[in-house]
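Final report, results section. Input specification for complex C-07:
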Amino acid sequence: MGGPHGHKLHFHGHSPVHRIPAHLKILALLGFVLVVVATPREWYWAYAAYLAAIAVVVAISRVPATYLLKRMVVEIPFVVFALLLPFVAHGPYTEVLGLSLSESGLLSAWGLLVKGTLGVLASLTLAATTEPQELLAGLERLRLPTLLVQIMGFMVRYLDVVTSEMQRMKVARESRGFTARNPRHWPVLARSAGALFIRSYERGERVHLAMLSRGYTGRMPRP
Amino acid sequence: MTPVLDVRGLAFAYPDGHQALFGVDLHVHRGERVALLGPNGAGKTTLVLHLNGILSAGAGSVAVSGLPVTKENVPEIRRRVGIVFQDPDDQLFMGTVRQDVGFGPANLGLKGAELEARVQHALDQVGMAEYADRPPHHLSFGQRRRVAVATVLAMEPEILVLDEPSSNLDPASRRELADILRSLDVTVLMVTHDLPYALELCPRAVVLSDGTVVADGSTYDVLTDDELMRAHRLELPFGFDPRTVGPPPVRG
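Structure output:
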C-alpha cells in the first residue's frame, strides 16, 4: 500500500520546471494545447517546433524521456482510431505501399495523431513535474470552483485506495485459478467491477460518517 | 459529579426492523479508560454511533457531560465525543496529514495560528509531527491509525471513542499506540476484541451482548470469569491467561 514518494505519474525532482508555481504551469499547458489545436494541419514545421519546445522543457526538468514515453500508452485508443481513418474516409485516393488510401483520411490521421501526441506529452510533463497537491492548489488559485477542486482532491486521495482494492481483487481471482483470456470471461470481470463500485460507494458512506463525526456540516472549512 | 458519558435505557431498532439495542445503561466518569467488549453483532458499533448523534435513540437517552444528545446539540456533542473509526482510510480523506488533522477544528471555527497550534499539538501527542505535509496514503498503516487518533484529539474531545484500535496493527505499532493512549489525559471508551489489549489499557470493562450490558466491572474480573466469558462468545487468545499477568497496577 502506497509507495514512499509521490504519485505514479509524478517524478520527484528539484529542477526549475518542478519549482515553477503550479498555476503558471497549468496556464502554460492550456495555452500550449490551444495553440497546437488551432494550428493548421499542413504547417508541418510548426509541429516540429512544438515538439522541440516540449523536448527543451523535459530536458530542463531532468525527467527521463523513457519515463514519459512509457506513460504515453494512454494514447493508444486514439492512435488506433487515427490509423483507421485513411481506410474509412472518402475523397481522392492515393497509393501507399500498394494500399489505396484516402488522401483526406491520411491528413486527418496525421492531424489527430500529432495534436493528440503533443497534448498528451505536454500533460504528462506537467504531471511528472507537479505534485497532485500542488496541482489542486494551483487550480484553486486559478479560481476554479472550490467544489470541483474538492472533488478532485477526494479523487486523488482515494485513487490509490481503490486501485489497491482492485489489485487485491485481481490477485484473489487469480489465486483461485481465474485469468481473463477471452470474452467468455468478461461477465466475471463485470461482476468484479460491480463489487468494486459497491465497495467504493460504501466507503464513501463511511467517509461521510467520519466527516460528520468531526463536525462537517456540508461545507468544507476554508483554511 | 456528572459523568462524561451517561447512557440510560438506550434502545434502538434499524429501519429494517432489526433491533440492535435493548435498554443499555452505561456511565463513564472523567479520566476513566473503559473497554467495551462483546461478540460480533452485539450492538457495539450501534452504541458508538449513538454517542455522537449519528444515530438517534429509539428510546432512552444519551448525555455527554450533562448535555443531552439531541438535534440542536449535535455540533457541540461532536466536539465533545471524538470517534476514531476502524479503517483509517475512512477517517483520513484530505490531501495532507496537516489538512486532515485541521479539518475538525476548522469545522469548529478555528482559524490561522490558533488552528495551526491545535494541529501541531495533536500531531505531537501521537508523535507524527514530522509527517504533517505528507499525503495520508503514503503513510504506513500504523502511522495512519495514529494520525486518525490525532484528527480527533485536535478537537479536544472530552471522551475519545476508539473502534478496534489495535486491528491490523503489527505488534510494534500496537504497543506504540498503547503508549500513546496511556500518555493522553483524556477519558477513553475502547471497543475491542483484543482482550489482552483491554486488560493492558483499561482498568474497567463493559460487556455488551445481544443489545444489553451483561457485565460491568474490573477488566481483570471480567476476563477471569470463565462462565461469563463462555456465555457471551468471548475467548482469550491461545496462551494468554490474565491470572498469570495479574491485574494491572492501579493508576495514580
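The CA atoms of residues 69 and 121 of chain A lie 8 Å apart. Chain A has nine helices and two strands. This concludes the modelling results for the funded period.
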